[in-house]
Design a protein that fits this description.
With 801 residues, the chain is α+β, with helices and mostly antiparallel strands. Helix content is 29%, strand content 25%. The chain has 24 helices and 37 strands. Residues 742-801 are annotated as: Disordered.
């Protein structure tokens, strides 16, 4: 406390009381105002606290420093250091215990008058009070008094003098301290070291000195300008802070030669530094004429022995109020709480909130730390948002062995829940690719098997200029339409779309039957119509209308189809062109778009985004010329890549274009699981080596590890090693045999086994085994661990009985 600026002190053992010190001592009581109104005469400290003035002590003028007695009893005893160097014990009138009544008013007087700069009570021996004074050439500057010692004239001379000529009361003056230290120097700050009640750290004029009261003739010191405000970290007793001007020095008393850390503040000089009593390693600093308190969080990070690296710190600033701050004081027990006081005695109760550190658990629960508390927030089981989370989906799919079915590849979409139409399209595409690749390899090995996994875009490019159109009759109508002759490549494209099965048969009947069984009446009718079988389309619609889950309106659609006429200016064509846009089902829309379109102009079918990509591509393969088909496939591929639509894998295949499409899909959904399994299914080596593919695979492996799905991750690694020859071999377990050099595989079946110290010894002869068991062979002493080279571990039996 300097000049007239107030200082503030919390009571050591009464956590709801504090003292403001300037020209007088004012005791306040803090109470909560959360559920009550502000009392008359109370001072608002914060939104939920207020202070009430309990008492004022004006008996100690010229105060320079104040220290609150650390013991429980008496609870309101304070030591006041004055400008003349005297230390006065005073009270705030709250304690009437006669046992300590004689302490009140006792003065401790130095030989020569000079300013008292600092006071410090010993935390272990609570009767000892250290005082730091200004320099005097013939006197000591560090005096240690015992406030309760029983003085005798022979040991401590005592005299009674009048304070002034007008006073009638006398007081006890103590003039002989227990210890006198720091001769011919000034003491600016003091603190006792908690690890030993006999050690006192003093900030002298040009050095920090540690005095040992057991041998006052010796001291340990270090030259420094940072001698003000010395204070010990309450959680790390070897760490001390001090300051000078605008710099804070952090010292380690175990290595006292130089500061372990220097903190540079603003150009303004510092006025106070204080460790937080409820938080490890948190230091608060205040500069002159500032409303900012700067906080330094000393992080405990391990460093190598002898490393000169400075400790890690996190710095932040807080602004408790708008006015300049004269002083502050940490609350002794409430976490990160402090009270600040301004030069005009305006006070504010303030809590420094911790930085909140968030962490997601692998199973989507959220945890965060705030101070000493750890909070966990988990989703409710009936929360729909949890079901939509991709991490939850991938976790459930992993449990169902999603992606691992390499025989019936299409079943993987069922393992995924059979809810996503894009996943269904993807796995059916991969199933057809695998099926027709194996079929081609059997017919002509190495011929076109790799072309299948390149996608329809590459397949149709290989047949440009080879296809001509021809007239085909409708079934159920007296009409002909131009349809492209199906060459081998277009047939393969239709097979990948699922319209026809493998072989030379181009009949879509089996496909229509499967759609009808699944209840996809509208889609089946559209496919029948695209194959010029309007009679079958009408039949399917009627079946759908009469089924339990069918739509009765399908009868109306069937009736409309039955009235089809090829005349361009007919009323039927005019009405269907207008009303088809009002139909909700996209397949019903494209049916009428197809019937009302001009020959060669099928945009109403090709660009209906709600129709499955495989159906639009199959339609294009039947009705578009080579040039039209190539342009359409190219445009559709780019759309699929940009949107990250998995249906586009049918076009791109497992190529670089497929990786681009999958990248957009992962960016949109985060589904690295599907991306990993898809690219492993049949991608060429150069695609598997793509950084993006490897990134998805490694991230999925890390996810499985984070979920502790060790067996699932092992299954995935085995699956990967089968499909990706370039993947690294799995880690092997090394076996070491200290008694011999031979590999376990060299063990002869007939060789007997002996036991020594719990280990089975394997040898070529009984003689060697006996020598090994007795420990007399030099080989046993000089043997080296065997180097394991990846043999199959499953052939070994346990070696420990």
């Amino acid at each position: 406390m300097s000049g007239t600026k107030p200082d503030i002190l919390w009571a050591p053992h009464q956590v709801d009381r504090f003292v403001v010190c300037d020209s007088e001592l004012s005791l306040y009581h803090v109470e909560s105002t959360v559920n009550s109104e502000l009392k008359a005469g109370s001072l608002r400290l914060s939104e939920d606290s207020a202070a009430t003035l309990l008492s004022i002590n004006s008996d100690t003028p010229y105060m320079k420093c104040v220290a609150w007695y650390l013991n429980y009893d008496p609870e309101c005893l304070l030591a006041v250091g004055q400008a003349n160097g005297r230390v006065v014990l005073t009270s705030l009138g709250q304690d009437h215990n006669s046992k300590f009544k004689d302490l009140i008013g006792k003065e401790f007087v130095p030989k020569h008058a000079r300013q008292c700069n600092t006071l410090a009570w010993n935390p272990l021996d609570s009767n000892w009070l250290a005082a730091g004074l200004d320099k005097h050439r013939a006197d000591f500057s560090v005096l240690i008094w015992d406030i309760c010692s029983k003085y005798t004239p022979d040991i401590v001379p005592m005299e009674k003098v009048r304070l002034s000529a007008g006073e009638t009361e006398t007081t006890l003056l103590v003039t002989k301290p227990l210890y006198e230290l720091g001769q011919n120097d000034a003491c600016l700050s003091l603190c006792w070291l908690p690890r030993d009640q006999k050690l006192l750290l003093a900030g002298m004029h040009r050095n920090l000195a540690i005095f040992d009261l057991r041998n006052t003739s010796q001291k340990m010191f270090v030259n420094t300008k940072a001698v003000q405000g010395v204070t010990v970290d309450p959680y790390f007793h070897d760490r001390v802070a001090s300051f000078y001007e605008g710099q804070v020095a952090i010292w380690d008393l175990r290595k006292f030669e130089k500061p372990v850390l220097t903190l540079t503040e603003q150009p303004k000089p510092l006025t106070k530094v204080a460790w937080c009593p409820t938080r490890t390693g948190l230091l608060a600093t205040l500069t002159r004429d500032s409303n900012i308190i700067r906080l330094y969080d000393m992080q405990h990070t391990p460093t190598p022995i002898g490393d000169e690296t400075e400790p890690t710190i996190i710095e932040r600033s807080v602004q408790p109020c708008d006015n300049y701050i004269a002083s502050f004081a940490w609350h002794p027990t409430s976490q990160n709480r402090m009270i600040v006081v301004t030069p005009n005695r305006t006070m504010s109760d303030f809590t420094v909130f911790e930085r909140i550190s968030l962490a997601w658990s692998p199973i989507t629960s959220l945890m965060w730390a705030c101070g000493r508390h750890l909070y966990e927030c988990a989703e409710e089981e009936n929360d729909n948002s949890l079901e939509k989370d991709i991490a939850t989906k991938m976790r459930l799919r992993a449990l169902s062995r999603y992606g691992l079915d390499t025989e019936q590849v299409w079943r993987n979409h069922i393992l995924a829940g059979n809810e996503d139409p894009q996943l269904k399209s993807l796995w059916y595409t991969l199933h057809f690719m695998k099926q027709y690749t194996e079929d081609m390899d059997q017919k002509s090995p190495g011929n076109k098997g790799s072309l299948v996994y390149a996608g329809i875009k590459s397949i149709v490019k290989s047949s440009l200029g080879m296809v001509e159109s021809s007239r085909h009759n409708w079934s159920g109508l007296d009409k002909q339409s131009d349809i492209q002759n199906l060459n081998e490549e277009r047939i393969l494209a239709l097979q990948l779309c699922g319209w026809i099965k493998k072989g030379t048969d181009v009949d879509v009947g089996p496909f229509l039957n499967s759609l009808v069984q699944e209840g996809e009446w509208e889609r089946a009718a559209a496919v029948a119509l695209f194959n010029l079988d309007i009679r079958r389309a009408i039949q399917i619609l009627n079946e759908g209308a009469s089924s339990e889950k069918g739509d009765l309106n399908l009868n109306v659609v069937a009736m409309a189809l039955s009235g089809y006429t090829d005349e361009k200016n007919s009323l039927w064509r005019e009405m269907c062109s207008t009303l088809r846009l009002q139909l909700n089902n996209p397949y019903l829309c494209v049916m009428f778009a197809f019937l009302t379109s001009e020959t060669g102009s099928y945009d109403g079918v090709l660009y209906e985004n709600k129709v499955a990509v495989r159906d639009r591509v199959a339609f294009a393969c039947k009705f578009l010329s080579d040039s039209q088909l190539n342009r359409y496939i190219e445009k559709l591929t780019n759309e699929m890549k940009e949107a990250g639509n998995l249906e586009g894998i049918l076009l791109t295949g497992l190529t670089k274009d497929g990786v681009d499409l999958m990248e957009s899909y992962v960016d949109r959904t985060g589904d690295v699981q599907t991306a990993s399994y898809c690219m492993l299914q049949g991608s060429p080596l150069d695609v598997l080596k793509d950084e993006r593919v490897q990134y998805w695979i490694e991230n999925y492996r890390n996810l499985l590890d984070a979920w502790r799905f060790w067996h699932k991750r092992a299954e995935f690694d085995i699956h990967r090693s089968k499909l990706d020859p370039s993947s690294k071999p799995l880690a092997q377990t090394a076996a070491m045999f200290p008694f011999f050099r031979k590999s376990p595989e060299s063990k002869k079946p007939s060789a007997p086994e002996t036991e020594a110290d719990g280990f089975v010894l394997l040898g070529d002869t009984a003689h060697e085994q006996r020598k090994a068991a007795k420990g007399k062979t030099s080989e046993a002493e000089d043997s080296q661990p065997l180097e394991w080279t990846g043999q199959n571990l499953s052939k070994f039996e346990p070696l420990v009985q």
